[in-house]
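Researcher: Let's do a round of design. I'm pasting the structure tokens now; please hold your answer until I've finished.
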């Protein structure tokens, strides 16, 4: 079993920055593609970013493109989400996810159904 734990959430003013981390319980995570999703109260879970198992390819949702950057350090079993120029509409619970089903991930990496392992999430609040 793969366990994922997010950290780094908090309260920040509009225009500020945060960096989220997602650490896995096993080094096998370095063979998995990873995704970041977010969910605000009353909303469905929204795709934020996804990164290939070796970090060679990265995709972003339209609402965060140019402001957020995903990366990974497989030696630390960790993926990151750097969030800059934060806006109130970025307020949500952010969760990381992992999948070893590469063919499914290549077909549609933005769908929650592609991912098999999920963290419990970390709260990000953007407010003045």
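Researcher: That's everything. Go ahead.
Model: Designed sequence:
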């Amino acid at each position: 079993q793969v366990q994922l734990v997010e950290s780094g959430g908090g309260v920040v003013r509009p225009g500020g920055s945060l960096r989220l981390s997602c650490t896995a319980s096993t080094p096998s995570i370095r063979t998995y593609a990873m995704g970041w999703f977010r969910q605000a109260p009353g909303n469905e879970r929204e795709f934020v970013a996804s990164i290939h198992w070796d970090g060679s390819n990265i995709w972003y949702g339209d609402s965060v493109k140019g402001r957020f950057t995903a990366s990974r350090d497989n030696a630390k079993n960790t993926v990151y989400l750097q969030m800059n120029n934060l806006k109130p509409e970025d307020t949500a619970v952010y969760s990381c996810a992992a999948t070893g089903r590469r063919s499914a991930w290549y077909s549609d990496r933005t769908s929650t159904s592609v991912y098999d392992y999920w963290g419990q999430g970390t709260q990000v609040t953007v407010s003045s």
